[in-house]
Amino acid sequence: MINLIINKISRLLSGIGHRMIARIWRLGAGARLFMLAIIYSGESFKRFHLTLREIYFTGVMSLLIIIVSAFFVGMVLALQGYNTLQKYGSSEAIGVLVALALVRELGPVVTALLFAGRAGTAITAEIGLMKTTEQLSAMEMMAVNPIARVVAPRFWAGVISMPILASLFSMVGVLGGYLVAVPLIGVDEGAFWSQMQANVDVRADIINGVIKSVVFGVACTMIALFEGFDAPPTAEGVSHATTRTVVISSLTVLGLDFVLTSFMLVV
Amino acid sequence: MERTKIDLWVGIFVALGAAALLGLAMKVGNLTSNTIGETYHVSAAFENIGGLKPNAPVKSAGVVVGRVAEIGFDPKTYEAIVTIKIDKRYEFPKDTFANIYTAGLLGEQYVGLEAGGEDDVLKSGDKITQTQDAIVLEKMISQFLYSKASETEADKGAEATAPAASKEGKSTELGDAPF
């Protein structure tokens, strides 16, 4: 009887340990891939058309979803903000509310979440399928480094695209908020813009938002690349890897956002 | 290098991003309104500055003429020393009055300058001697309550001596309007 309980507990513990070791192994392998991508990134700038092509697929093709969702997010922020602010008779502050919320938080974070869903999954599925169909091994046979040829251009494309998409998100969101606040609700236009300009700081708010989006770009792209590289070469393996990309990217972005914000507000 | 359609699209994408960032900096942020030309520094001592913060606007007749550069504390006089920088284009007489006002009821606080009549003008490093402190809402409310309390005491006394007269006075004042 006692032997049975001890056996069960030890099996449970070893299972937890096994999972932890697998996680740590994956973290280490991801860090190694990140280092290799940086080391072999010379190729992606020398033959820039490779990176350009990836910017087209990750950045330009994400434009529509980013712009449309930014527009609606801005409009909803203005509606919700007005609802509360007019109770205190300061509905002109709606511009500040919309702009600060977008520039500081929603711009980088929502863009990163959409980016993980729109571009991250595509990267994971593409690389996973390349691995499944042994294209990566074929490259190695031809003495082409798959990290320099496949990983690095995608990495830099993601890092370049993210801040561009995030600033577009913030700007379009502010325009959406303007559209609801000024013509629809009837907030004074001059007060809307001047209050916004008086309270949004270029360095403390806008530049920090851009820094956040660069960090999220690195994180999202790296997770997508690693999951693709690490996917078991089966149809099921690729599908699991794609799901994991979205889940891990989203959680990482939200966690990193808290860490970055706490740093930025203290400094 | 051959030009492809992808290059064009990426070019448009990057240009859009740059335009958005520029728009954020110019239209949303305060890059444009924060630029004052050359300035000169003037200091003023206040007994209480309320919620005044560095970089708050300095206004004269409602126009922004400078910004608060620094706020310090004088340990000898126990007063706040506010250093303000004023645009070189604007000169103020030596007997200029410096007030701390609040924009709106609960808005941000700013320094208001009211020009005096002297011929000599303020120079860099000068000190404004005539100042008025910030209005602290709690202080005002407690003063109001105090005066209100003493008023009602006095009213009670008056009513006790001539109750009929005061009632009649009130009714004529308000008329018969159904308030």
Architecture overview:
- The complex is a heterodimer of chains A (267) and B (179).
- Chain A is mainly α and 267 residues long.
- Chain A is built from ten helices and no strands.
- Chain A has one domain.
- Chain A is 88% helix and 0% strand.
- The longest helix of chain A has 40 residues, at 146-185.
- The mean pLDDT of chain A is 91.
- Chain B has 179 residues and is α/β, with parallel strands linked by helices.
- Chain B has two domains: 1-32; 39-138, no CATH class.
- Chain B has three helices and eight strands; from the N terminus they run αββββββββαα.
- Chain B has helices at 5-28, 137-161, 163-174; strands at residues 39-46, 57-60, 63-74, 79-87, 97-102, 109-114, 127-128, 130-132.
- The radius of gyration of chain B is 28 Å and the shape is elongated.
- The N and C termini of chain B lie far apart (85 Å).
- The interface between A and B is medium-sized, with 32 and 27 residues.
- Chain B: InterPro entries: ABC_MlaD (IPR030970), Mce/MlaD (IPR003399), MlaD_Phospholipid_Transporter (IPR052336).
- Chain B: Residues 39-116 form the Mce/MlaD domain.
Return the structural class of chain B. Answer: alpha/beta
Helix and strand content put the structural class of chain A at mainly alpha
Query: What integer value in Å does the Rg of chain B equal?
Result: 28 Å
Level of helix content of chain A?
over 70%
Distance between the termini of chain A: 59 Å
- Ranges of chain B where pLDDT stays below 50 over 5 or more residues in a row are 165-172
Gyration radius from CA atoms of chain A, angstroms:
23 Å
Strand tally of chain B: 8
SS field, number of helical segments of chain B: 3
- Element order of chain B: H for helix, E for strand: HEEEEEEEEHH
Biggest β-sheet strands, sense, barrel of chain A: none
- What does the largest sheet of chain B look like? 8 strands, mixed
How big a fraction of the residues of chain B is strand? Answer: 25-35%
